[in-house]
Amino acid sequence: FVPGGPIEQILAELHDGGSATDRISGGGGDVASGGGDSQYQGARGLPPEFIEDLEKQFGFDKPPAERFFLMLKNYLMFDFGESYFRSISVLDLILEKMPVSISLGLWSTLLAYLISIPLGIRKAVKDGSRFDTWTSGVIIFAYAIPGFLFAILLLVLFAGGSYWQIFPLRGLTSSNFEELSVLGKIADYFWHITLPVIASTLAAFATL
């Protein structure tokens, strides 16, 4: 009923020798082989009782309409369930990552407006000039490049992909962040956000 959903992910992990069984049974023991037809890919050879337990865990034992309204109710109560891969609340996961997203979003928006407003004024004053022509070409080129593709290019060039190891590949701060001085912490923070902010600013800048 839901191709690629959580049940089929667990079944695929079972066939790959993963630890999905522990997540369902609480650890220990193998799932006994069985037969029977199933609507899920990868369910062949697994007992129907195991599939029923999976459906009950993820709510697929209820009618679609009931599941839909139950989902809306949970969303209104900010209950997004648990992450299948992290085994923690989705809301906690969002709150954990929110400072990073807010930080990158604020800096990207600030830089985009600091560049776009003066550039727009200059282009209006120099309408039809060589400056207006080549900046328009640059903007069109930047608008045509997806932000994620430009981000990958920056990683390959400047984050140890194939050329230079100038910027870190991941993280918002270094592992020794707490040991740094105040100026060191500021420099470390900006060192980590440089590439993602550039990639985000390019995408926002081209549309302003």
Automatic annotation (TrEMBL):
Chief place where the protein resides: membrane
GO CC, one annotated term: plasma membrane
Record membrane topology: Multi-pass membrane protein
Cell location: Cell membrane
UniProt keyword Cell membrane, yes or no: yes
BP GO annotations: microcin transport; transmembrane transport
InterPro entries found in the cross-reference section: MetI-like, MetI-like_sf
Any Pfam family: BPD_transp_1
Keywords: Cell membrane, Membrane, Transmembrane, Transmembrane helix, Transport
Protein name: Uncharacterized protein
Native organism: Cyprideis torosa
